[in-house]
UniProtKB/TrEMBL annotation:
GO terms, molecular function: kinase activity
Organism of this sequence: Salinibacillus aidingensis
Main location: membrane
UniProt-recorded name of the protein: Diacylglycerol kinase family protein
CDD domains (alphabetical): UDPK_IM_like
Compartment(s) of residence: Cell membrane
Length: 126
C-alpha cells in the first residue's frame, strides 16, 4: 500500500482492475471516445458486409486501435491539464492543442486507410 497526494491509500499491484476502471471512466466522461467507438462499430459492420480480407482487417484494426488509444491518452492529458490549470494558461492551451492534434492525425490516417480499403469495394458493387 502507498498513499496518493490526498493521503488516500492506494493498493499496489497488477493494474488491470484500475485499467478497466480507466476504460469505464473514459467511456462515461468522454463523448469523443463514445463517438469513436460508434464509428468503429460501423466500420466493423461494413467490413463484415464487404467481406474484408485478412490484411484489410489488420489495417482496419490498427486504425481503430490507434484512434482509441490516442483518444484515451488525450483524455488523460486533458484531465491533468484541467487540474493543473483551472484558469487560462498558454501551457495548458499548447498541451491540449498538441494532444488533440495527435488524435486528429490518427483519425486522418484512419480515413486515408479507410478510403483505400472501402472505396474500391463500394465501387465494385455497382
Ligand atoms: N486552461 C486552459 N488554458 C488555456 N486554453 C485552454 C484551457 N482549457 C482549454 N483550453 C483551450 O480550449 C481547447 C478545448 O479544450 P477542452 O478542454 O474543451 O478540450 P476538448 O478538446 O474540447 O476536449 P473535450 O471535448 O473532451 O473536453 C483546448 O485545445 C485549448 O486550446
Amino acid at each position: 500500500m502507498n498513499s496518493d497526494l490526498n493521503g488516500n491509500k492506494r493498493k499496489k499491484g497488477i493494474g488491470f482492475k484500475y485499467a478497466f476502471m480507466g476504460l469505464r471512466r473514459v467511456w462515461t466522461s468522454e463523448k469523443n471516445f463514445r463517438i469513436h467507438i460508434f464509428i468503429s462499430g460501423l466500420v466493423v459492420f461494413f467490413g463484415i458486409l464487404l467481406n474484408l480480407s485478412m490484411s484489410e482487417w489488420l489495417w482496419t484494426g490498427v486504425c481503430i486501435g490507434l484512434v482509441l488509444i490516442l483518444e484515451t491518452l488525450n483524455s488523460a492529458i486533458e484531465a491533468i491539464v484541467d487540474y493543473l490549470f483551472p484558469h487560462y494558461h498558454d501551457v495548458a492551451a499548447k498541451a491540449k492543442d498538441i494532444s488533440a492534434a495527435a488524435v486528429l492525425l490518427s483519425a486522418l490516417f484512419a480515413v486515408f486507410v479507410g478510403l483505400f480499403i472501402f472505396v474500391p469495394k463500394i465501387i465494385n458493387l455497382f
